[in-house]
């Protein structure tokens, strides 16, 4: 049976700041992210299954990505969890609820690596995450490929 790839697109709005960065991105700013998730597998061959002919139900993929990425980060402020950012986060929490502290500098590159790990953990064993693209702007994106990350 042929291996087939499926891609689903997601969008979300998010703000971040890059601690100790030497440019404008050190300030709080936001992006309209476009996120493409590609998985691969063999279509289900069980004719009695409601998922017959599917690698994965697009609705199931949507649920996974929404649960681990979109619901957490859409309309959130993300910042690196450091002592220097602790006071800022505490003050912001007095006025805003969606503040996410992460263990990495929230660059597009680091975010997509985290997203790959989080999504992979939720996929069915018959489905493999093969590629992610995260557009931070219309002309700038980070790309994660499973082939580049084989151990």
- Integer average pLDDT: 94
Counting helices, strands and paired strands, the structural category is alpha/beta
Total helix count? Answer: 3
Helix/strand order, N-terminal first: EEHEHEHEE
SS strand fraction: 25-35%
What spatial form do the alpha-carbon principal axes imply?
Answer: elongated
Largest sheet: 6 strands, mixed
Number of strands: 6
Spatial sequence of strands, sheet with the most strands: 4-3-1-2-5-6
Rg (CA only): 18 Å
End-to-end CA span: 26 Å
Helical coverage, percent range? 25-40%
Low-confidence stretches: none
Can you offer a commentary on this structure?
The chain has 151 residues and is of the alpha/beta class. The chain is 26% helix and 34% strand. The chain is built from 3 helices and 6 strands, in the order ββαβαβαββ. The protein has helices spanning 58-73, 83-93, 108-120; strands at 4-16, 29-41, 76-80, 99-102, 128-137, 140-145. The two termini are 26 Å apart.
Q: What is shown here, in short?
A:
With 151 residues, the protein is α/β, with parallel strands linked by helices. It is 26% helix and 34% strand.
List the helices and strands and how they pair.
Elements: E1 4-16, E2 29-41, H1 58-73, E3 76-80, H2 83-93, E4 99-102, H3 108-120, E5 128-137, E6 140-145
Parallel strand pairs: 1-3, 3-4
Antiparallel strand pairs: 1-2, 2-5, 5-6
List keywords for this structure.
34% strand; 6 strands; 6-stranded mixed beta sheet; 151 residues; alpha/beta
């Amino acid at each position: 049976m042929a291996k087939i790839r499926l891609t689903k697109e997601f969008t979300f709005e998010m703000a971040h700041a890059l601690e100790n960065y030497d440019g404008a991105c050190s300030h709080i700013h936001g992006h309209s992210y476009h996120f493409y998730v590609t998985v691969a597998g063999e279509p289900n061959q069980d004719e009695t299954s409601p998922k017959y002919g599917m690698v994965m139900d697009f609705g199931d993929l949507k649920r996974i990505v929404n649960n681990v990425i979109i619901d957490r980060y859409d309309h959130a402020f993300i910042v690196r969890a450091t002592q220097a950012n602790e006071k800022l986060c505490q003050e912001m929490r007095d006025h805003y609820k969606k503040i996410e502290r992460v263990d990495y500098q929230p660059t597009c590159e680091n975010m997509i690596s985290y997203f790959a790990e989080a999504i992979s953990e939720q996929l069915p064993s018959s489905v493999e995450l093969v590629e992610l693209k995260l557009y931070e702007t219309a002309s700038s994106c980070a790309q994660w490929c499973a082939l580049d990350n084989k151990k």
